[in-house]
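Re: the multi-chain job from yesterday

Posting the exact lines I submitted so nobody has to dig through the queue logs.
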Amino acid sequence: MSDDRPAALRSTGVEQSFGDVDVLSGVSLTVERGEVVALVGPNGSGKSTLLQILAGVSPPTDGSVTVPRRAGGARSVGYLPQQPAFREGFSARDTLEFYAELLDGVDDEDVAATLDRVGLGDVADRAVGSLSGGMTRLLGLGQAVLGDPAVLILDEPGSGLDPAMVERLFEVVGELAAEGTAVVVASHELPAVEAHAETVYVLDDGGFVASGSPAELLDETDAASLSEAFLRIVRAQAGESTVRAGIDEGQSAQEVSGGE
Amino acid sequence: MSESDADEGADAQPADGSPAAGNGQVDASTSEAEVDDEQPEVTTDEGDEASAESRQSGFARLRTNLFVVATRELRTIARTPALLALSAAFTLSVVGVAWAGTGGGGGFVPLTLDLLTFVEVLVPLLAVAFGYRSILGDRQTGELDVLRTYDVRRLSYVGGVYLGRALALVGVVVATLFVVGLFVPFLTADIPTFLAINAAADSGVRYVRFVVLAAVFTLVVLAATIAISAAARTVRTAFALAAALALALVLGIDTALVAGLASGVLPESGLTALLSLSPNSAFRGLVLSTAVGVVGGAEVNAGNALLNTVGLLVWLVGSLAIAVWRVWPAVEEIES
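And the result, structure tokens for all chains:
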């Protein structure tokens, strides 16, 4: 673990819209060194959009993101996209060696160690096109952790992996966090999130509707598991939206009828 | 706060793929997001020296990344059967045209004239095949986003893609023309030996000029194709634009100029300058004026060599500038 690791990742008032569609509204998030933060939310809630903004690959419509620049040009952010894919015709090893060459101080030995760490040591020389979806995702994880980034942003890393690999993946995440890496992971694997995340943010309707440690969320929702807590939070959010819509319709009806 | 462009997102996209202007910012004492490839200033007592060091380091990384990307492009081409097959088809076609023409036995200048039109048509097609998915492919796989987390500048990435593809494509074109040029000394009955050469004499030097100009033409067309690949957001759009480019280069621009002249819209006095706007016409003009020169005792009127050169340069630099600008949005850094 290096001594020059930066401070936390911080987003302040992040907003994102595409045309008339508002995806994110005033999202603020802080991740400390060594912390594992999980983003959960319904499909289409904006998790991937937020992660792209946090990774610096997509500028927000408004708001700011702060990621400390590391000394000596070391890598600040490692990013695993939701659907990782790599250029055909290269092996897993070739692919990571290409990315390693873009970094200072990362050599072929580090690449081999990374492949072993993510469980691809036995298929390192297999062509990317012949890797399964889960293996491709592990290769994406390997790419993301190259260069020992200060912040790791993972978009649904467990998708397509068997339960054992999901557990192994989150163990790797935990090891990285223990070494000081700040981790932000979006995931639907709520049992793994419950076991490994320190803080959970529930994203819905463009903003955070709940946040806290898994234990706090269970306590607030009187749920037995994070999955149950998530459902209660999301349904409550949907219920409030329905009530608001009903009130608006009622008011409209009164106006039409002359306020009876 | 500063404005920045957002081209696309994972969860929703503008229907027309156009960027949405925004006020988002990334705090710069912090992000590796890029701005104009400049390094941040260091405000210490040794600020100047530290700035110089960081600039050197930054330039060295820029150059290294460019060569890393270029190497990957070369390796990609070597591992793409379709491009290898197209290259072979190009070579065989050019050899066939040369053989069916003068067969190399007429000399270098007749060979140049045999190949000129063919090169004008085939090189754009080959350049489109080599280039139109070069950057778009990385965008579609998401590797473009991933690369941006490695502190790869737009200049490094576009420069590397262009350099790698250019080395391969120019290699194919030059090697092919060189092989064909070998026909002449081995097939010509009298191998010319001169102590002094007049303007009408055939010589290998003229053919070398043709090959060099063909290489330049290849570079120009490839640059335009790379610009399309950087700007397009879908394969369909890229292919349509690339096909339109090839058609415009081979037929469209010159046809439009002729139509303009015939209708009186374009002044005849401006023909020389207008021809330099078309890469194909500029290339043709330079070949005729420098590599052919004299045909049947009459000097070839092929436009203004300087204007033709400038025209090609504008296309080359302008295309690469468009590619760098459009490949991904710049995120403005703010010093804290």
